[in-house]
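Good day; I would like, with your permission, to put a structural problem before you. A protein sequence and the structure tokens that stand for its backbone fold form the material at issue. Thank you for your consideration; the sequence and its tokens are set out here:
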Amino acid sequence: MKALFVDLSTGKIEEEEIGELLPRYLGGVGIGARLAFDLIPQGCDPLGEENVLIFCPGSLVGTNIPTASRTEITAKSPLTGLIGTTNSGLYFGAFLRYAGFDCAVIRGAASEPVYLLIEDGEARIRDAREIWGRDNWETYLWLREREGEKVQVASIGPAGERLVRFASIQNNFFHAWGRTGLGAVMGSKRLKAVAVKGKGAFRVHDLRQVLELAREFTERVRGDDSFGYTRRYGSMVASDPYNRIGVLPGKNFTRGTIPSWEETRGRRVFERRYKEKDLSCFACPIACGHWSRVKEGEGTGYEFHGMEVTYVLEFGAKLQITSIEEIARSVELCDRMGMDVVSTASVIAYAIEASEKGALPSEEVPSWGDPGGIRSLIGRIARREGIGEALAEGVKKASSRFRGTEPYALHIKGAEIPVRDPRGKWDVWSLGYLTDIRGGDHLRARSPAEYLLGGTLNHLEEELHVSEEFIAALDMPDDLKGRIFGSPPQKVDIPLMTKYAEELITMINASGLCLRPPVLRTFGPQTLSHFLRAVWGIEIPPKEVLLSAERVWNLQHLFNLREGLRREDFRWPSRFYQEENGTPPLDPQKVEETLRAYFLARGWDPQTAIPTRKKLEELGLGEEAKRWNVTR
């Protein structure tokens, strides 16, 4: 594996072999975590020159292995002060590999706006003053005209340039590296874009074996029960169930159910009134993306990419916009400005509720469900104008500026809470919000046995809604199946499954695969072991693959402890311990008991959340922990 190192302060460009990291960190998110831990100084300013920005495609990206398209970007987060890591698909990672590099590490800061061009084994720093100030779509079109139509672009918009702490990095037109604010890191480096193109090939170890394994895995993905509806609706398949079980984040998590939801923002109205055709990322047979058009009414003819359930939940539920078209227009503005959809919707919901309660000046704040007013505020946040100056800091920092607004600032570890209310359904996802290494988030703990309409037996177990045949076929060690599901299978142990789900998703993000259900339900350590042997020629038994994923999670946790994370940061905001519209509150004692069981499953001290020396030595991380004095 070859890494590209670029210092924007000095203009120095180097290459380095990093193949020794692959067996221990698996690629993608894992190699990003290792480099971040080693290269980012403790206590550094996330918006200072010392922060490092790491682009790392998954280890299988560039092959025809199904859904192997995704690239992880890692740095210290300006939003949380913890590890910042974010993931996106499409073609960027494959083209970086075809250009001759498996990873790109960017240090320092340029004195004037620049973009980085990576092409056919070379990297050049080029003048970007002409496009500084332009939005992401304008930037992408400018780079396509200058560098050719096949160029793949990671860029920032005005929000990243102005160091909005939740600024995203746009991936061509419609995809993004959204969470944790790494667009602001690019802005602090005066790096407008990274453009990649290459005519090379990714030379795998055993092409015949890769093709055979890819064929077998494609059959498993296509044969999974979730494949058909995932292709038909994409993530919108979850929109209706979320309303039925009462987990919507409506009005800043005060309305878990909305009576008109399915008729206005449900999956069938999306399919009937908007969906035109399916779209896919690189090497993907699922094609869960959509190209859409308003087919009737006032906005007839407006075209957009999507719809994604996260967009509908954030703008449609949290901010109460009732039209999918207006949601799409709001998402388009976020994409152009370069702002994470979750944090943007959350900080606006915070402002609206605080204004309603008289705790925030109301002149610049829209009302619930006002798409024009909401988009106007998005623009002010991106430009840091008026109240947008405070809101651009994220809900945690904004609420410290306005006395009495803390109850409306809903975050975990500084990251705004997306998508789901845990009071409607306590499960692996709910616990995963608390334990996520990047703060409140829904994408790093997904159970392969999840069932949206199922109930919870108690705070430690949930109902099992999959068959014994499904469990038998799961790519999971048999002893672990017995501990999680019981023998015979009869329940899901929430703390144990949360730990495994985090490691499963670490494997997926390390390899560059997608989190859609057909992959989540068919991938695992044995599959990755086979792929790594065929693609890279390295022998890692399935149990060692799982251990490597656990190593990555713990290394990210050590980074966070080093940067000041404490046990008391693993908590839900007070709102979730209150009843809302008939939805029972979380029980603090039960949440604490579940969290304690999770810490014990991880081999962490349940009082401090610090890994035990025994656990870290088992993972080969004893020296790292000793260096930063974070063991017990």
About this structure: The radius of gyration is 23 Å. The mean pLDDT is 95. Residues 428-628 form a domain with the Aldehyde Ferredoxin Oxidoreductase Protein, subunit A; domain 3 fold (CATH 1.10.599.10).
